[in-house]
């Protein structure tokens, strides 16, 4: 039994020297590898989380910029609408003034034509009055009546 104990102890020393040391080194390396992988995974998770936050921030900023563009477009549209309305009002006023000027010109032309007609009719009346040999007072009364009559028609 002593021999067996002696060989067992020698075997343990040999195993410790030749097998236990390399196995422990391999286990140590494996532990370091796993720890490195865990650390890399944590770092990748942190980087992914950071990238996700940055993407969310960029999305938020993009939404704000889009909203600002929409607001700017709305205000530009409203300004353009007001400009178009004001331009249309000015154009309508200009057309109205031109129409009133045309009406006044036509009225003046009509009055001038009427005055010319009155003058020619006055000459005609005068010639007829001369033919009838009216007195000066009758002629004047006849002309005044005719002028009043023409003035009322205007």
From TrEMBL:
<keyword id="KW-0812">Transmembrane</keyword>
<comment type="similarity">
    <text>Belongs to the ATPase B chain family.</text>
</comment>
<feature type="coiled-coil region">
    <location>
        <begin position="38"/>
        <end position="116"/>
    </location>
</feature>
<keyword id="KW-0472">Membrane</keyword>
<keyword id="KW-0813">Transport</keyword>
<comment type="function">
    <text>Component of the F(0) channel, it forms part of the peripheral stalk, linking F(1) to F(0).</text>
</comment>
<dbReference type="InterPro" id="IPR028987">
    <property type="entry name" value="ATP_synth_B-like_membr_sf"/>
</dbReference>
<dbReference type="InterPro" id="IPR005864">
    <property type="entry name" value="ATP_synth_F0_bsu_bac"/>
</dbReference>
<protein>
    <recommendedName>
        <fullName>ATP synthase subunit b</fullName>
    </recommendedName>
</protein>
<keyword id="KW-1003">Cell membrane</keyword>
<keyword id="KW-0175">Coiled coil</keyword>
<dbReference type="Pfam" id="PF00430">
    <property type="entry name" value="ATP-synt_B"/>
</dbReference>
<keyword id="KW-0375">Hydrogen ion transport</keyword>
<comment type="function">
    <text>F(1)F(0) ATP synthase produces ATP from ADP in the presence of a proton or sodium gradient. F-type ATPases consist of two structural domains, F(1) containing the extramembraneous catalytic core and F(0) containing the membrane proton channel, linked together by a central stalk and a peripheral stalk. During catalysis, ATP synthesis in the catalytic domain of F(1) is coupled via a rotary mechanism of the central stalk subunits to proton translocation.</text>
</comment>
<keyword id="KW-0138">CF(0)</keyword>
<comment type="subunit">
    <text>F-type ATPases have 2 components, F(1) - the catalytic core - and F(0) - the membrane proton channel. F(1) has five subunits: alpha(3), beta(3), gamma(1), delta(1), epsilon(1). F(0) has three main subunits: a(1), b(2) and c(10-14). The alpha and beta chains form an alternating ring which encloses part of the gamma chain. F(1) is attached to F(0) by a central stalk formed by the gamma and epsilon chains, while a peripheral stalk is formed by the delta and b chains.</text>
</comment>
<keyword id="KW-1133">Transmembrane helix</keyword>
<keyword id="KW-0066">ATP synthesis</keyword>
<dbReference type="InterPro" id="IPR050059">
    <property type="entry name" value="ATP_synthase_B_chain"/>
</dbReference>
<dbReference type="InterPro" id="IPR002146">
    <property type="entry name" value="ATP_synth_b/b'su_bac/chlpt"/>
</dbReference>
<keyword id="KW-0406">Ion transport</keyword>
């Amino acid at each position: 039994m002593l021999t067996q104990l002696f060989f067992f102890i020698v075997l343990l020393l040999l195993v410790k020297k030749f097998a236990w040391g390399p196995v422990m080194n391999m286990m140590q390396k494996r532990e370091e590898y796993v720890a490195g992988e865990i650390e890399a995974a944590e770092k990748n998770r942190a980087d992914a989380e950071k990238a996700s936050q940055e993407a969310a921030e960029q999305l938020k900023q993009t939404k704000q910029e889009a909203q600002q563009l929409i607001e700017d477009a709305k205000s530009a549209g409203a300004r353009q609408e007001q400009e178009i309305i004001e331009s249309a009002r000015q154009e309508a006023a200009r057309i109205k003034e031109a129409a009133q000027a045309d009406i006044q010109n036509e009225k003046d032309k009509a009055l001038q034509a009427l005055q010319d007609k009155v003058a020619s009719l006055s000459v005609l009346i005068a010639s007829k009055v001369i033919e009838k040999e009216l007195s000066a007072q009758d002629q004047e009364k006849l002309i005044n009546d005719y002028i009043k009559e023409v003035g009322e028609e205007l």
